[in-house]
Sequence to fold (311 residues):
Amino acid sequence: MDINLYQIFGTSAKDIIKEMLGLDIRGMDTLEQEPGEISSMGVSSIITFAGTRKGRLLVDMEPSLALYVANTLLGEEYDDIKDRMVLSTVSEINNIVSGDAITKLNNKLSMGLRLAPPIVFTGQDVIISIPKITSLSSWGDTDHGKIRINVAWEGGNN
Amino acid sequence: MDVKYILPFLESVKSVLEQFGVEDIKRGQLAKNDIMHVDQDITAVVGVVGQIRGNIAYSMSEETARGIVSAMMMGMLVEQLDEIGRSAIGEFANMVTGNASILLSNSGLEVDVTPPSIIFGKDMYFIISTVQTIKIDMETSLGKIEVNIGLEI
Fold:
């Protein structure tokens, strides 16, 4: 298993959230295998990519963290995670994190990866299922809520 | 968004369902959305990259999903949408989008498809594109499939 294919996304998330929001993410040092289904913590965003291999990144946040991210970046006082601006901000964070990680992977491993636009969603009792792909998660904690980075590559972990 | 980019996805929904013996497939009206509010149980999303970049979301009730899985499994009774059933819905979304990408490539556009994600939940709010999303309801003998297409061209 090339752990770097997974860890690079967690590193990008930590660096970019620190740089853009001044927010430290504690933890996110280990990778845990997820079952086929993942329960959303509140607001989730997925970016998929394709090149020499295919995969996807899921960024999952507790509602308190999603609101903090939107309020801090936009200078507003949103209190509803269904607000279009809150969802768009989480989506854009995922876009920046994925762009950073994918650029590094392309430069280092010539994977020719191209990103689809991010999707973002929230709702009740949300479960995300990614068929036939094993995924690994890193968990982090901040002063404003938890975050999970989940990475999956088609064709296993090699 | 030019209709020539939308039609391949709608034609593919119809042709893939017809391959599985689903009948009475009718296309509803088009609507534009900034944000998708989905009151269906299941949404399968597939991304596209290349000369067209975007996401296509296929939303349906659990009953419709079970009907599609049953049709894909030669009429086998599907009482619950278990792991195999969910995987089949992902495969359905993959087939539809893959088929549409072939139609697009026949028009000279190079497009690759990314892995499907299947999302379950109630009262769902989605954004699948930074530009406007086009929504089309497809009525079928198995129930409604809401197709949302968000393409950045």
